[in-house]
Write a structure and sequence with these properties.
With 352 residues, the chain is mainly alpha-helical. The chain has 16 helices and no strands. The radius of gyration is 20 Å and the shape is globular. It starts with a helix and ends in a 10-residue tail after the last helix.
Length: 352
């Protein structure tokens, strides 16, 4: 099956994944506590986008629920899945470690700590969401730089040390964030940070979500032009230098861009894990490690994963909305443990 997919033309595979993703988003708008037909969803979208009149059988309350509640959370789930998959793929190439992931390595926790600190010390109240976003960016950047320094002191084949180091950093950041939330639980706005600890798209608003989606799409376009550099990073300096390429400037640029991406995602959706690990890893096992093919398949597959995780979180238990980060952790953590036990992770090709 994997060989069949690998031989499939990239244009056909990405078209199939795009169609599946669009259909999944439509289902996400349809399914929920209030059921709406697919034709009704199309009518509601046309009403807001084209100014056409709503059919008489669709109540204004249902139309508002679809446009103001379901559409933002589906688009945010889509942006989170695509962004985390892209971030995980880039981190795995940068650190030459197939188990690298912004959640496991602590970058997401650093962004969450930065955002919580901005709220706790009053920057969020004084300057709004922009200050919280800057805090998340600085936190993610600081953790990324620490990881880069640690990676430079680790032997290329020693993946376990970097994983443990990243997990320890994530635990420290998570602990400090919990203390800030606990101490400031009565402060204005501090209780909002609680949802960051679980990872949720329930509070998504349309305009901020569209901004995050635009950022994710811009990063996808940029990194789609960097496939050759990412391939060289997997091979290492010993391969890149004879070809006249110095990888250090690109690593620095990618660290800053990855921190900006994670800061944007964490500000809106909180801590959501394992997407950046499982999706690029699984796609690499099927597609191989060539990033020109790996990138579009990974980001589309990541979007599919998070959209469906959000849908299942809403409909599996009647009247209960399971946060996206929780549902993904329930899936991702056992798979991650299985990968560690089997030690079957590798960079494409045949199993190790």
């Amino acid at each position: 099956m994997s060989r069949t997919i690998r031989r499939m033309p990239l244009a056909i595979l990405t078209t199939i994944l795009t169609v599946l993703l669009l259909f999944s988003c439509l289902l996400g708008l349809k399914l929920g506590y209030l059921s709406v037909s697919l034709s009704g969803i199309v009518s509601i979208l046309a009403s807001h986008l084209l100014g056409s009149a709503l059919p008489s059988d669709i109540a204004m309350g249902i139309a508002d629920a679809v446009w103001d509640l379901r559409l933002p959370r589906i688009l945010l789930a889509l942006a989170v899945g695509m962004g985390l998959s892209l971030s995980g793929m880039v981190m795995q190439a940068m650190f030459r470690n197939p188990m690298s992931d912004p959640y496991i390595m602590g970058v997401s926790s650093g962004a969450s700590l930065g955002a919580a600190s901005a709220v706790f010390f009053g920057a969020g109240a004084a300057f709004g969401v922009s200050a919280i976003g800057c805090g998340a960016f600085l936190g993610a950047l600081a953790l990324s730089l620490i990881l880069a320094i640690a990676a430079g002191r680790v032997a290329p084949g020693d993946s376990s040390y970097l994983l443990i180091f990243g997990a320890a950093l994530a635990a420290v950041c998570g602990g400090i964030t919990s203390v800030l939330v606990y101490i400031g639980s009565n402060a204005t706005g501090m209780d909002v940070t609680l949802y960051w600890l679980m990872g949720s798209v329930s509070f998504a608003k349309l305009l901020p979500t569209l901004s995050v989606l635009a950022i994710v799409l811009a990063f996808i376009i940029f990194f789609s032009t960097q496939a050759r550099i990412l391939n060289l990073m997997l091979e290492g300096e010993e391969t890149a230098v004879p070809l006249g390429r110095q990888l250090l400037p690109f690593r620095r640029l990618y660290l800053v861009m990855n921190a900006l991406l994670m800061g944007s995602l964490v500000t809106q959706a909180g801590l959501i894990g394992f997407v950046g690990l499982l999706v690029p890893h699984g796609c690499r096992m099927v597609m191989g490690a060539y990033h020109r093919k790996l990138l579009p398949v990974s980001v589309l597959s990541g979007g599919l994963m998070t959209v469906w995780a959000d849908i299942l979180g809403r409909i599996l238990i009647h009247g209960v909305d399971i946060p996206l980060g929780v549902s993904l952790s329930l899936i991702g953590a056992p798979v991650f443990l299985g990968m560690l036990i089997r030690r079957s992770y590798h960079f494409g090709g045949e199993g190790a």
